Structures
1.
Amino acid sequence: MNIRKVHILIVIVMAGIIGYFGITHISQPSCQPVRQVDLDETSLVISRQTDLNETFSVLPRMSYPQPFVDKPQRTDVLLMSPWLAPIMWEGTFNRDILNAQYRQKNFVVGVATFAVKKYVRFIEGFLGSANKFFLSGHRVNFYLFTDQPEKVPSMKLAPEKKLFTITVQSYSRWQDISMNRMDIISNHIRTHWHYEVDYLYSMDIDVQMFEHIGVEIIDTLVGTISSWQYTKPRDSNSYERRPESRAAIPSGEGDFYYAASFYGGSVSEVYKLTTACFKGVTEDRANGIEAKWHEESHLNKYLLYHKPTRLLSPEYYWDEELPQPQIIRVKRLSSVRKDLKDVRSEMPDPHFEL
Ligand code: UD2
């Protein structure tokens, strides 16, 4: 290749580079939405810039019992995981201090819940109790996914709470309704929630809240310890152990067993979690296998290898069928007893009726 050809080649390559970066730059919106979360993992590696202009916030003067290092608030339960994630139990935190810290941030929390087919009957109990007990006094957006928006009761919510109803299709198998929640949440984060909320929680609809669930649940990645399995050795609980499933956890491994009824965290962490779990579900489907406890099995695998930064004790999902042991001082949220044969039985799809 002669020198002239080399020059022409260099000019073409340079023009390509300038053109590419020019277009990328121009296509950036000039004004970024305030709440936009970067869902691209690589940004976690490169963005190390600290905002020194951030205003310093000062807590109001408050009066409360003094903490002492030699007087633990509770000695009957584990307060910290081996990776130092706090476990939330009644009697271990002061809600007034947490509220005062949280109020300075002005966060919006989103709650995603699904009421498809006969589960619409649980909407009123869920919303009525959540309006009263869930992050009381703080901004919450409830996102209710349903195939029957006409059946959503009109309810007066507290001024800081909002309800958004989103229509979704139903599936003939209840397991698919439950598992596809991961995909729907992941997609909705990409299209909406990363502009709208700071933290996001997914909750089953067939539950009711009986005590306050406050800002003690807010953290980067949050899982709830199952009320059925919190004392079981890891090899006798419900993890998926078949190596053919993407949800498989090898024997001898496992921390806690987490309930899929209540998990959450920052928008970007919930995006990673739901995307990864649904990828596992999809690969299992392609391989003709379904994990033992559906998306809950995939969630357990994910949380084993991406340790939660905060854990909610079984107070935050207590199964009504279980007797209440002494360590459960409050049942903040409990399942609603349901007749499985009835709620999961087939119902004609109103959208396809002639
Ligand atoms: C467990 C999990 C649940 C899910 C399921 C998968 C707990 C406490 N709950 O509960 O999160 O992982 O196992 O096996 O660990 N739904 C509908 N319509 C339907 C069926 C389900 O809307 O016809 C939605 C609804 O929001 C419901 C959720 O899916 O709360 C989970 O279904 P479930 O409550 O019947 O599952 P369950 O009790 O076996």
2.
Amino acid sequence: MAETTPASNGTVNVIKGDSAVAHAKGSPGTYSAPSRVTLHLEHLPSKNIKAPWPRTPSRVDPNNPPWPAYRGYHEYSFAHATMGVRLPTILGKAIDDTSRTLNEQSNEDKIVDLVQCLERMDLLMADLSGNAKLRPIIDDGEGDVALWNKEIAKYFQGKDFMNAPWLFAEAYKYRRLHECFSVSRYWKDYDVFYRQKCDTFARSADAVFELSMRFAEPFKQSENISEKEKAETERLMFLELTQVCLWGNSTDLSLLINMTEDQIKSLQSTGGEHLAATEKNILGNHMNQLWETVKVLPEKTGGRIDFVLDNAGFELYCDFVYADFLIQSGLAKQIRFHGKRYPWFVSDVTRNDWSWLLNTMVYGHLFPKASEAERESLRRLGARWKQYENDGRWTYEQHPFWCTGYTFWDLHSEAPDLFLHLSHSDLVFFKGDLNHRKLTYDCAAPASIPFDVAIGPMASAAGAPKVCSLRTIKSDVVVGLGDDGDAIAEKLDQEEPGWKISGKYAVVLLSEGRPGEKVRFA
Ligand code: F6P
Ligand code: MG
């Protein structure tokens, strides 16, 4: 797994591996320790970008975002490091995982079928390492094939992994990885990242129990306090749990798989003091506006809140803690969670990850060192959350659009059914870095650009719901930092190179939505 580590000289060290290429050439075995190269993050300055930027809306398309696109051929960029190093390394680990599964099989038909999956993965590795042109996706019956091939045919004919926009090329790699299995007979739903996802939750014991011991007992206001005090308690709890949900995003596997247990612990500290300190790292902070939006939901519409999920395991657990509070407090009546149909960007939530988390909390033996009280608190939480699912207060959904290369600027046009569905929501949270990249077209927009402008039709199209991005910053695009945003970004570029990929900083950004024009169905 590639790592990025801030260095002291204004650059960031990227760990670079060449064993992936060796595998593509047919060498078996696991992936060895990579060597270091130096990464400059300021390759595409987003300040002082003069006309023709931003492109006028009619000139914007997937190959031409409003501001300059990040592309893999920008040497020394995070896009380049990801396309050239991180993705082959992630694929190499996926091959190792599949080989491990192969070695555990006894049925010949299944073995032969899985060997063919491995051969397809080797071809993908050769394409990735050899910077092949992007070919259409094979029709494997998935609901997204037409969307993928339309986008490739319209915008990316003749493009390769390095000269297509980074966002599209990276998503395409995960779609091709899925195809290695989806065309098989027995392994259609195999998840090469499943072991890693489960393992990281198992290694998050401290933070898991810190939260379960505190929240197993349902949220209830004390009887003896005034209405004003009750409102204040609710507000403070909301703000605290918004941060728990936000920082749950900092431990994503595609970047942090080599972390020690202590490093995971420090990223996952959830205590009040810790959160007060981390609030200063929220560079664009609309938490107060968010509270103003949420607090009136009960009397307005009854409160439907949607979560476009990001990562499984600990992050999903934090999302659940937050969603539980929203239900317990009466701020929301219904929560809809949107996950992925198949393994995506390593750690993203699938239906399987969703069920695994709830069931392992109730029945699992994951934490042998925990006390009985701790285990009981986890069981209680898990049982309550399963009950929400059973009575329809929580639902899991997985629209095919979430696993395409389209950004959310195209959500209303390429997935109108989904857009309409979201337009019925009072508030849609988008979790994590990739969702933020997709909201903002993943381009070099100035940091001072308001969030409403950066997300285009997701804020301006008729019926657009209120959108809140809860994102720890783990890649180049940064918007919504206010009028001084460009200066703030410039200062950080100079003083803390690597600030855009470290996960130390975050944004909580809220759009206005177009509620006046919302189409509401009974
Ligand atoms: O490979 C880079 C990336 O796509 C970035 O968006 C981010 O660093 C990571 O992968 C995914 O992060 P998240 O799980 O928060 O979307
Ligand atoms: Mg993710």
